[in-house]
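Quick one: structure for this chain?
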Amino acid sequence: MQRDTKLQDQQQPSSKGLKGVRPLGGTKKLETQQFHKTKLLLSIYRTVVWRIETAIYEVQETAQEYGSDRISELVDFLSLELDEYDLTKDKKAIEDRLMCIAETKQMIEIVDKALKHLKTHPKHGQVYHDIITYCYIDKDVICDDAIMRKLNLTQSTYYRYKKQATELMGIALWGYIIPPLKEYWDKLQ
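Got it. Here's what it folds into:
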């Protein structure tokens, strides 16, 4: 009897050892949290991109104030020891701003990578991609009715696909893209 139980345990596939993978039919609470985190991230995407573009423009202006037209030259300038010129405070503020821009850019790239992965989904991948793009990514805000007409979808199909697309974006983000990056970031610290 014990031997049969051991054989059954060995034959049962398990996701315990796999990071970022949870069994199908996992807890509804986790799925709901993942869905809402994804929806929140997507809802701020457009604003974050707008702010990062503004921040890059401001850093470009700062570079010009220091006599350079290129941000890379500003970074080189900041890497020099400028303490004798009493610019440490300005230098630190600019370095912090550049780090913030770089981190935000990385997050934008993560969302873009998940969106690209979503597009390859074998069932309705292009439609899912288009829905997420029109709803959250494109610079111009488009209402749901306009998106439905653009994609030639009925209201019920559109909202069903929108929910599925958001769920799949969550899976791509939290299960496919972010876990390896988290391991990498943890190693850096």
